[in-house]
Amino acid sequence: MALLALIPHYLVRAKKFSKYVTYTAILLSCFIFFLPIIRGFDGQYTHHLFIDAEITAQGTVILECRPHFGDSRSFILVSESPELAEAIKTHAEYFKGSYFIHDAVFQSNYRFEKLQSVELLKIGSKRLVNDYSWTTDKLQGTTALLIP
């Protein structure tokens, strides 16, 4: 790596800016090592998931999230929000006691490859007024389907 940083020095050693070119090349070569650390610090990834939602008589919203309709991998989110329940009732398909949402948009927040939280951003094409967020201790089930 040190040899790669010194190549610009030998190319412009007769010029008056050779010292600046050398320092810049050394800094850029050191930056290559820090780039994976910087990128892994705060990662946000978008996922399109299928939701099977149930709204209980008390108003509790239970969201079973899967990659696709027939997939067995799932995780469950629970919310007490009446706004979320109303948004699901208006924008989802109701069938035999459950609401089906075919294209819900989630954002998963990672810090150094460890899941921190999940946010529900959209139900179908409808952007939610509030972003609903759950931390990892509120998630039930497997979150392996959210790994980027």
Structural summary, described in words:
There is one protein chain. With 148 residues, this protein is an alpha+beta fold. The chain has 2 domains: 2-41, no CATH class; 43-146, no CATH class. Helix content is 30%, strand content 43%. Strands 1, 2, 3, 4, 5, 6, 7 and 8 form an 8-stranded antiparallel β-sheet that branches. Helix 1 runs antiparallel to helix 2 (18-41). The model has no long low-confidence stretch (mean pLDDT 83). The chain crosses the membrane at residues 20-38. Keywords: Membrane, Transmembrane, Transmembrane helix.
Which blocks of ≥5 consecutive residues have pLDDT under 50?
A: none
- By DSSP, the count of extended strands is 8
Q: How many H/I helices?
A: 3
Helicity, as a percent range: 25-40%
Largest sheet: 8 strands, antiparallel
Shape label: elongated
- Average pLDDT across residues? 83
CA radius of gyration: 24 Å
The proportion of strand residues reads 35-45%
Keywords: Membrane, Transmembrane, Transmembrane helix
Transmembrane segments: 20-38
Please give the structural blueprint:
Elements: H1 2-11, H2 18-41, E1 43-55, E2 61-66, E3 75-79, H3 82-91, E4 93-95, E5 98-111, E6 114-123, E7 126-135, E8 140-141
Antiparallel strand pairs: 1-2, 1-5, 2-3, 3-8, 4-5, 5-6, 6-7
